[in-house]
Amino acid sequence: MKNSAVLAPPAAAPAPPAEMSARTLLLLEGPIVPTLLRLAWPNVLVMVAQASTGLIETFWVSRLGTNALAGMALVFPGVMMMAMLSAGAVGGGISSAVARALGSGRRADADALVLHALLINCALGLLTSALFLVFGRQIYAAMGGRGGSLDAAMAYSNVVFAGNIVLWLMNALASVIRGSGEMLFPSTVVCVGVALLIPLSPLFIFGLGPVPAMGIAGGGAAVVATTALMAVILAWYILSGNSVVRLRIARLEPAFFADILRVGGVGTLSTLQTTLTVALTTGIVGAAAGPDAVAGYGTGSRLEYLLIPLVFGLGAPLVAMVGVNIGAGQKERALRIAMTGAALAFVACEAIGLAAALWPSAWLRLFGDDPMMIATGSAYLRFVGPAYGFFGLGLALYFASQGAGRLMWPLLGGFARLVIAVGGGWLALALTGSLPLVFVMLGAALAAYGAIVGIAVRSGVWFRKDRLALRAASVSS
Prior knowledge:
By secondary structure, this protein is mainly alpha-helical. It has helices at about 5, 20-30, 30-60, 65-105, 105-140, 145-160, 165-180, 185-205, 215-240, 255-290, 290-325, 330-360, 360-365, 370-385, 390-405, 410-430, 435-460, 465-475. The longest helix has about 40 residues, at about 65-105. Residues about 1-20 have low confidence and may be disordered.
């Protein structure tokens, strides 16, 4: 079915305001694939670099033993949840609001959104820090942590979450810049931070000269230090006037908070679903086979988590491109952009998943050679890896839906994934005691997620309210 059959006949697109920047006009008028790839490649590069943060830490922490590796696996879902919330969920709401304001020519509103974005992320950073600093031990124990693995988890978690607000502020600044269509500068800043992490992580973990060995906590200290530096550089970029949008002292407006949180709040629920899915399945694996199996599942599923920053490389420009075109009334072009990005994400993630399924030990042996860890991680990758393409497709359309301000179907797809993965996994384990069958359910859950979101967006659900309004207007006339 062609898009013209899906969408209401669009009104003639208004001429773009004269004050629009060349970057905004590119998002509105540039050829879709070249423009998307032009904006995506810096983000893909930097997200691979940022994903290396976890790999660098895991590599060095694995030298501390299986308990340290299992402890890091317990904390990792929470750490990734902070990154996904601050950059992908609320950050997507920030980018979407900025992009839609620029697309409709509301430059002053785009500037005012900067202050509102910083205040929102500052408050959420403090709130989430308090949650893990106060209840961290109970959370990790519920996920299967005990003994040495639980102690290691707490040592790492307390340092990371003490500096959590820095991550939220850094991603607020980066999201503002990305919402204007500028992808290269924030990507470059993250690359600088990752480059600094390479020497800092082993330095803080093992110590050297006057620097004391901090153990697993040193990995967290290195991440906090490099994130703080990135936040300072991004703040300078906006304050110096290099960005399309500027930080201005403006009266706080409930409408601006609502514009960000309307998208970011639903995105937060979607992110919590993803994190809860991994946390609960980690608990199922731990209850079935113990800490060594948790280490294997955590190491294997880390590859799935690394798909998130990879797809975010495409997702950030999807938010900006879809948001600007929605703001300008170009609905059909917005939908074409979304489906193009989803197809690219499917191909990239499926290639990674198939490679991991065929050669799982190539990934797992980077982090250790414990037989139980290798066996559990290999089983996970063989059964779940082939479904990674659907995860990438659904995630790309989640970002595109942020740009459109329509997140209900990604939320419903995430809920279906949660039910199938956790409910089906628990039932499979209870009835058969088979851990591989649990992983089969995880793969089926990813496939259902991608299929539900893909079919819904392609059918035109973003514009259903517009069609209904058009019908009502035609009937009343």
